[in-house]
Automatic annotation (TrEMBL):
It comes from Caloenas nicobarica (Nicobar pigeon). Its EC number is 2.4.1.135. It holds the Pfam family Glyco_transf_43. It is a single-pass type II membrane protein. The record marks 150, 242 as: Interaction with galactose moiety of substrate glycoprotein. GO terms for biological process: carbohydrate metabolic process; chondroitin sulfate proteoglycan biosynthetic process. This is Galactosylgalactosylxylosylprotein 3-beta-glucuronosyltransferase. The keyword Manganese applies. CDD domains: GlcAT-I.
Amino acid sequence: PPPRRPEAALPTIYAITPTYSRPVQKAELTRLANTFRQVSRLHWILVEDAAARSELVSRFVAGAGLPCTHLHVPTPRRYKRPGLPRATEQRNAGLAWLRQRHQHLPPPQPGVLFFADDDNTYSLELFQEMRTTRKVSVWPVGLVGGRRYERPVVENGKVVGWYTGWRADRPFAIDMAGFAVSLQVILSHPKAVFKRRGSQPGMQESDFLKQITTVEELEPKANNCTKVLVWHTRTEKVNLANEPKYHLDTVNIEV
Ligand code: UGA
Ligand code: MN
């Protein structure tokens, strides 16, 4: 028999990334791929906010150098408004794919899911931390909520509250980048999804998490939530004031 690779025991990390077309898209995806490529057993689920797969993302995925699943679903136009939650449909498409794929496979299928927005910054250490998620794990997020960081407050190894500067009344006062969920929990709660109905800004995380877990049950990572391993960076909108109206160059370049 072939020698058993030690990697074979590692749970797969599924990263669901919603993404949409804009001048910085390819740069963002390149930055993410450069991180994710260095992580063992990471499966990237890229979900385009579009009516069809774009050529840009399709080409990108083909050359990304890591296992990728490329999905697409458009956000209905009525939901493309400031103040409304983003990427609801895309994250749900990623969840549906994950459930479908594992429905027919025999257990155990060790896996961990997390939501990786395309503009954040992820340290490699974060993946080591989330890999051991039993049900739902949490950790601090840098540069979010109007503070240098937000974090779950931990006492005796349990989450007992939230250090945050924004909407402290949220049941789970945590950014999308601040938690991971085991595949088993995703599969055993087949109806847990992101909802458009009644969802308020900043409540998507709480609305989702309360369907699958409780605060008492959360597993603190990153040294009892005392280390920032992910940053809610946001890319500045590019100034294209000098972009010509019509194509003037002698070549066509994908940016
Ligand atoms: C914050 C949170 O960090 C997000 O997880 C949350 O989805 C978002 O607020 C929200 O308001 O719903 P923020 O940096 O403001 O994040 O949001 P973006 O990074 O602009 O969007 C989150 C993700 O959705 C990104 O991966 C982005 O590419 C994607 N997106 C955004 C779309 O797929 N379509 C859009 O029209 C906008
Ligand atoms: Mn963002």
